[in-house]
């Protein structure tokens, strides 16, 4: 649970981290509140003072994720994230975690397609601990073969836990691998199992050298500090780290899809699962805000269309969701998904989802429904600001994708979306030729053993 | 998976919630808390937090699944969920439309001890929001058709959860551990019991238990004392008082060793090892909190993580926890490892339980645990959601509003000898109940 990989599996994240996916803004702009500077070595620093609690979140973001990997070496970013806790010349293995926790702090790290991030949340009077540890491991990481072999085993267990034994997660993985043929969003963040065994210590060393440098990183600090006090401390700790060379961040564009792709995953499972992924533009385009609104109309709240129609009225699905990854470095997918109720056919559910899309394409959304979706998005952002940790993450994700200042454009841009925009965008992107449809086909659970499942067996000993 | 995570998070958050504590220095983060008791018996806790224009309301009703009648497991859960299915004057669809239009969220659910109704609403919509909150609470219609749909969903969710090996293991563990008692069955019931639920049963449960005298309302956010008095109190004062029957709970725990093996075509063995735990009012709670941090709750510095994950690479996650409630819950160690490592990981987990019983912990390790527990406290209160939960639990367990002040010394006073004593008293590695959900053949456990 500690080195959590924050993978973009939208509906799981909606459940767990909905605040992360609700980029929006209200009230006074963050442009006035956030202080930005770039140290001479290229390290960007974003500082957001907020004194409501005596706490800080200290975050280091590297502009490297699975999109920077190569075919055959997938999962490298995430394995390196794990190895970042294995010590430096100064700080022995596992000392890092002990130091943070003995200072009453929490820490973790997460890897995504576009970034790898590290954070410490702690009392503001302990911030120096985070500064020292993070600046040290930005340049002095020691990568040992012995640690690598054990940690790779841990990552393999992580993959088993998250993906191998989770039929829905396997389906999402297959959809991405089908929807993307050229772009690196094709492979899972955690990597293919076969690739994990192929990674070498040399791969890690090269990767660390190329991507972990001030010019490819930035800091976000939010909470109870004084900028005049904190900035010199950051400069002292990070300022002397050699700049590094800005890595090439260009990736080949995924060509337009020329017809629907369908993929099946057959696994032992109780219920089927249906997911459709449509190629859509990402944040720099105004259409992406219309897609935000569409996702809200479809699945935000119990009055949303999917909930009302598929779950309540037609009683076809146990759950249904739409999600749009606005904050994506490169164009990603807009998802619609549903888990059919027992006894319902996938085809029925697919038809019902298609009808919802067609309705968006053929009818103008009524003014009140549009207003409702915008109100929800705006309220969600206000709520999300309650956690400084979450706010800092959001700021960083904007920085990765569109520059942090774009966070202030979110609510105005959402507010600008018209019912005509919704219709036009639905007709432009949410079309059959542009989608990959994935279906989890449950295999009947085979009777593997004579004893029925769950039957108790009493034993006296165990080896 | 998402269900597994939800369940895990539920367990962990329940546990963390109960780890109330304060940093060694004054916690100026915590604004003053006001407590009042209405004539109908409702306890209200209020805390003003005005940095953002919204407020969070949480109502705890002492009506959790522990009160489910035998054979009707899931009734408390359905009764709580049913609050959202419409009232005597409005349909669920009408209520949902209004809530969504103002960007509010209203949710209802139940746990093993109590039911929770909560509302998050923007400052400008507080009047409308609290009206809907109150209407939902006091005038639910429980329409037959909607109840039936909810039952179908509960059954489907129970079925779907069978795909999650962690959940399967957890349910089997609770079932094996509790021979009798309030926590034996899953909150959401079983596929047999849910089929027995009816609207009549729901109405009866609601009429019996949904009353103010055993409820706690916590309000945190942008709402002043005057606003609370003029806008919120009059609504809740109208909630009529009624006595609630007391129900005795005979509790009986199984004595191990007991092994339950469940075969599934999966790559990892999902393992739960544990036994009887404690209730929240156990005076050894604090010593156990410190002990368990070192054993398996302290993340990367815990012994279980060090031995199983860091040294041997056998698991991504391994943790131990007590799950204390109004009544004694379980102690458990939860981990997942590839099938073929199951036996090795189980053996190490049991060894670590034994080791902390045999050898006193070092002063250094003890200090590290205390520093974390005391120092990390403010982070448990840094959002409205966390604060609302904290305050409600504070009241529910009668810990007193001065509890935050007392906590550092409660933790600080734990000694090495006490850690050894509670490890011996509350850990029973020879009496374990072990559940393994795995490909049993690969695990060598057929």
Structure, explained:
The complex is a heterodimer of chains A (463) and B (446). Chain A contains 16 helices and eleven strands. Mean pLDDT of chain A is 91; it is low at 1-27 and 448-463. Chain A has helices at 10-17, 76-83, 95-102, 127-139, 145-164, 167-179, 193-198, 201-211, 227-238, 287-299, 305-313, 346-362, 367-384, 388-401, 410-416, 419-429, and strands at residues 34-38, 44-49, 55-62, 106-111, 116-123, 217-223, 261-268, 273-279, 317-324, 333-340, 435-443. Chain A folds into two domains: 33-238, Cytochrome Bc1 Complex, Chain A, domain 1, CATH 3.30.830; 261-443, Cytochrome Bc1 Complex, Chain A, domain 1 (2-Layer Sandwich). With 463 residues, chain A is of the alpha+beta class. Chain A has a six-stranded mixed sheet with strand order 1-2-6-3-5-4, with helices on both faces. In chain A, strands 7-11-8-10-9 form a five-stranded mixed sheet, sandwiched between helices. In chain A, β4 (106-111) and β5 form a beta hairpin. Chain B has 446 residues and is α+β, with helices and mostly antiparallel strands. Chain B folds into two domains: 31-237, Cytochrome Bc1 Complex, Chain A, domain 1; 254-438, Cytochrome Bc1 Complex, Chain A, domain 1, CATH 3.30.830.10. Chain B is built from 15 helices and 13 strands. Chain B has helices at residues 2-18, 75-82, 92-101, 126-138, 144-161, 165-177, 199-209, 225-237, 285-297, 303-311, 342-358, 363-375, 384-396, 403-412, 416-426; strands spanning 33-37, 43-48, 54-61, 105-110, 115-122, 178-180, 215-221, 252-253, 258-263, 268-276, 318-322, 330-338, 433-438. In chain B, the strands form three sheets. In chain B, strands 1-2-7-3-5-4 form a six-stranded mixed sheet, with helices on both faces. Chain B has a five-stranded mixed sheet with strand order 9-13-10-12-11, sandwiched between helices. In chain B, a hairpin with a 4-residue loop joins β4 and β5 (115-122). Chain B is globular. Chain B starts with a helix and ends in an 8-residue tail after the last strand. Mean pLDDT of chain B is 92; it is low at 1-28. At the A-B interface, α1, α3, β5, α5 and α6 of A face α1, α3, α5, α6 and β9 of B.
């Amino acid at each position: 649970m500690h080195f959590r990989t924050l993978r973009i599996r939208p509906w799981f994240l909606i459940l767990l981290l909905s605040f992360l996916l609700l980029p929006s803004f209200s009230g006074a702009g963050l442009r006035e509140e956030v202080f930005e500077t770039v140290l001479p070595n290229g390290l960007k620093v974003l500082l957001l003072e907020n004194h409501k609690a005596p706490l800080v979140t200290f975050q280091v973001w590297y502009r490297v994720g699975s999109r920077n990997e190569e075919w055959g070496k997938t999962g490298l970013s995430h394995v390196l994230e794990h190895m970042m806790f294995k010590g430096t010349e100064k700080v022995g293995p596992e000392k890092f975690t002990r130091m943070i926790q003995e200072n009453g702090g929490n820490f973790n790290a997460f890897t995504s397609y576009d970034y790898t991030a590290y954070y410490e949340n702690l009392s503001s009077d302990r911030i120096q601990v985070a500064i020292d540890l993070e600046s040290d491991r930005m340049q002095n990481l020691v990568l040992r073969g012995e640690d690598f072999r054990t940690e790779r085993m841990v990552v393999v267990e992580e993959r088993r836990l998250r993906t191998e034994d989770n039929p829905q997660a396997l389906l999402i993985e297959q959809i991405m691998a089908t929807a993307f043929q050229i772009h690196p969003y094709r492979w899972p963040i955690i990597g293919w199992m076969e690739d994990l065994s192929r990674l070498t210590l040399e791969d890690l060393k090269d990767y660390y050298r190329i991507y972990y440098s001030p010019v490819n990183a930035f800091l976000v600090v939010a909470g109870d500090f004084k900028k005049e006090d904190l900035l010199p401390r950051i400069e002292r700790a990070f300022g002397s780290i050699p700049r590094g060379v800005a890595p090439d961040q260009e990736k080949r564009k995924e060509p337009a899809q020329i017809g629907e792709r369908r993929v099946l995953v057959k696994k032992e499972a109780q219920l089927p699962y249906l997911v459709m992924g449509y190629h859509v533009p990402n944040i720099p385009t105004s259409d992406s805000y219309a897609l935000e609104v569409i996702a809200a109309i479809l699945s935000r709240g119990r009055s949303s269309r999917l909930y009302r129609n598929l779950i309540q009225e037609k009683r076809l699905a146990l759950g249904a969701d739409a999600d749009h990854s606005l904050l994506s470095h490169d164009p990603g997918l807009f998802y619609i998904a549903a888990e059919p109720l027992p006894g319902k056919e996938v085809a029925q559910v697919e038809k019902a989802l298609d009808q919802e899309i067609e309705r968006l394409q053929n009818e103008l959304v009524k003014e009140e429904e549009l207003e409702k979706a915008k109100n929800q998005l705006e309220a969600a952002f206000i709520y999300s600001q309650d956690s400084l940790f979450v706010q800092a993450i959001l700021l960083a994700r904007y920085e990765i994708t569109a520059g942090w200042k774009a966070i202030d454009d979110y609510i105005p841009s959402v507010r600008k979306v018209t019912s005509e925009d919704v219709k036009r965008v639905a007709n432009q992107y949410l079309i059959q030729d542009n989608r990959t449809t994935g279906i989890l086909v449950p295999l009947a659970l085979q009777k593997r053993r004579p004893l029925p499942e769950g039957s108790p067996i009493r034993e006296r000993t165990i080896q | 998976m998402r269900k597994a995570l939800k369940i895990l998070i539920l367990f962990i958050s329940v546990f963390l919630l109960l780890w109330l504590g304060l940093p060694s220095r004054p916690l100026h983060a915590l604004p003053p808390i006001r407590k009042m008791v209405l004539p109908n018996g409702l306890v209200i806790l209020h805390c003003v937090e005005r940095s953002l224009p919204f407020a969070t309301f949480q109502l705890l009703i002492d009506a959790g699944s522990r009160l489910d009648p035998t054979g009707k497991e899931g009734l408390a859960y359905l009764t709580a969920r049913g609050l959202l299915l419409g009232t005597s004057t409005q349909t669920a669809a009408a209520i949902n439309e209004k809530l969504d239009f103002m960007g509010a969220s209203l949710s209802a659910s139940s746990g093993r001890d109590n039911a929770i109704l909560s509302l998050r609403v923007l400052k400008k919509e507080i009047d409308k929001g609290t009206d809907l909150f109150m209407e939902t609470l006091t005038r639910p219609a429980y329409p037959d058709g909607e109840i039936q749909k909810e039952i179908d969903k509960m059954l489907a969710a129970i079925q779907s959860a069978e795909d999650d090996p962690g959940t399967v293991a957890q349910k089997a563990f609770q079932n094996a551990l509790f021979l009798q008692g309030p926590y034996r069955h899953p909150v959401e019931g079983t596929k047999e019991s849910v089929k027995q639920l009816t609207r009549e049963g729901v109405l009866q449960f609601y009429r019996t238990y949904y009353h103010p005298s055993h409820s706690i309302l916590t309000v945190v956010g942008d709402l002043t004392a005057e606003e609370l008095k003029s806008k919120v109190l009059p609504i809740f004062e109208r909630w009529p008082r009624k006595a609630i029957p007391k129900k005795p709970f005979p509790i009986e725990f199984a004595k191990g060793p007991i092994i339950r093996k469940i075969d599934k075509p999966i790559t990892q063995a999902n393992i739960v090892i544990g036994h009887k735990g404690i209730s929240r009012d156990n005076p050894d709670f604090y010593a156990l909190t410190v002990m368990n941090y070192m054993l398996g709750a302290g993340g990367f510095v815990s012994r279980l993580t060090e031995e199983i994950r860091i040294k041997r690479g056998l698991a991504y996650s391994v943790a131990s926890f007590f799950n204390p409630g109004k009544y004694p819950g379980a102690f458990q160690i939860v981990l997942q490892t590839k099938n073929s490592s199951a036996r090795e990981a189980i053996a190490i987990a049991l060894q670590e339980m034994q080791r902390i019983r045999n050898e006193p912990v070092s002063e250094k390790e003890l200090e590290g645990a205390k520093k974390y527990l005391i120092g990390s406290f403010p982070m448990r209160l840094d959002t409205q959601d966390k604060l609302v939960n904290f305050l409600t639990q504070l009241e529910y367990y009668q810990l007193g509003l001065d509890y935050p002040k007392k906590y550092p010394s409660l933790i600080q006073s734990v000694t090495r000898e006490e850690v050894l004593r509670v490890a011996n008293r509350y850990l029973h590695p020879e009496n374990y109940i072990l559940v393994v959900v795995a490909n049993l053949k690969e695990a060598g456990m057929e």
